[in-house]
Amino acid sequence: MTPAALFPFGMVLSVFLSSCWATPAQSQTFPEFPLNGPQLTTVLVRVVAHGAMVLGRDVGGARVTITNVATGRILATGLQQGDSGDQNQIMRTPHMMEEPIYSSRPSAAFTAMLDLQQPTLVEVLAEGPLAYPAARQKASKTLLLIPGQNLTHDGIVLHLYGYLVEIHQPKPQEPLIAKDDVTLRASVRTLSGSVVRPHGDWDSRKIRIYGEVLIGDRIVERLQMFYDEASRTFQAPFFVPLPTEAPEGITLRVVAADPVGSNFGVGQATFPILSERLPEKRR
Questions:
Q1: What 3-state DSSP class applies to 184?
Q2: The model's pTM
Q3: φ, ψ at 17 (rounded to 5°)
Q4: Peptide bond preceding 259: is omega within 30 degrees of 0, i.e. cis?
Q5: CB 253 within 8 A of CB 225
Q6: If DSSP codes are grouped into helix, strand and coil, which group holds residue 27?
Q7: Which of 84, 113, 136, 173 has the most CB atoms at less than 10 Å from its CB?
Q8: Where are the alpha helices (H) located in the chain, listed in sequence order?
Q9: CB 250 within 8 A of CB 214
Q10: 166-222 pLDDT, tens digit each
Q11: Are 269 and 168 in contact (CB under 8 A)?
Q12: What is the rounded CA–CA span in Å between residue 105 and residue 89?
């Protein structure tokens, strides 16, 4: 008698289907928690600078707020603090889509433990960097949370766009002397505090960085800026106008613009102008 006669096709198919149903795939198994009642759910949020590192203690971190969309009730709020992450892992290591980027090494995050009774639509709002109010940005996401289904590893990642641009010389509100040759110096960093410079992970050669001299709201001169490695700043010389040309003083503005990376930043300060240098006080 042939094997086919011993095991009819219908019986073979039935055995095959039964074995499939008897051992469901892992993704089809039921979660192991009670059917009813609130479930403790871990939600991890990570706020990062777009195209850069995590916002950590170096820039004051970020504030995170999780709100129930239906009721408007704040479920959790707090600060993200910690390290900015491993630069080699985040910026230079290729990753598959499902691989962690920020959580494979220690990096700042905000973790909330929520008691969820039912599937809940929430808005997650991030604001930072907190130590630099002039460059502070906001970002939010709306997503559904399921009771007992934890969001960990990289968590919910929110990207903030922009640059930290700071003028270091001249000092803000420092009087300038008419006709003096003055050097403008400014630093440019990502929102996570990483230095922007030529040939670095954040290459200034791909970014438009320039200065502007303004009288009132009118730009009177645009300055080409060059990088100085010793001070890690961009600098450009300019001549101070006469007090008659700028009776209310001048404004110096430094712009960092990366249209491809969608990051933009501005730093500016105002300066009064004196017609002559004041004599030093005698001791």
A1: strand
A2: 0.83
A3: -65, -40
A4: no
A5: no
A6: helix
A7: 84
A8: 3-6, 9-22, 87
A9: yes
A10: 999 999 888 999 999 999 999 999 999 999 999 999 999 999 999 999 999 999 999
A11: no
A12: 8
